[in-house]
Design goal:
mainly alpha, 4 helices, elongated
Length: 72
């Protein structure tokens, strides 16, 4: 699933507005040529979340924990 930049920006706005994944899926179906399934939308939102909030991902958490422990 490769949405256009315009569609991806709109998905980011929908994510920030806390729109349900189903509505985001329908938006992608209506505005692009791709036909993703719900898992694709879930993965896209997880990727966007990790890009926007790196501290909330497991790797970000482990990095923060490792940095804190290595300073002691």
């Amino acid at each position: 699933m490769q949405p256009t930049t315009e569609a991806l920006n709109e998905v980011k706005k929908l994510r920030k507005a806390v729109v349900y994944r189903k509505k985001i899926l329908i938006y992608i179906w209506d505005s692009t040529d791709s036909e993703p399934c719900m898992v694709d939308v879930h993965n896209l939102l997880a990727k966007l979340k990790s890009e926007m909030d790196p501290g909330t991902s497991l790797i970000g958490f482990l990095d923060a924990t490792h940095d804190t422990n290595s300073e002691r």
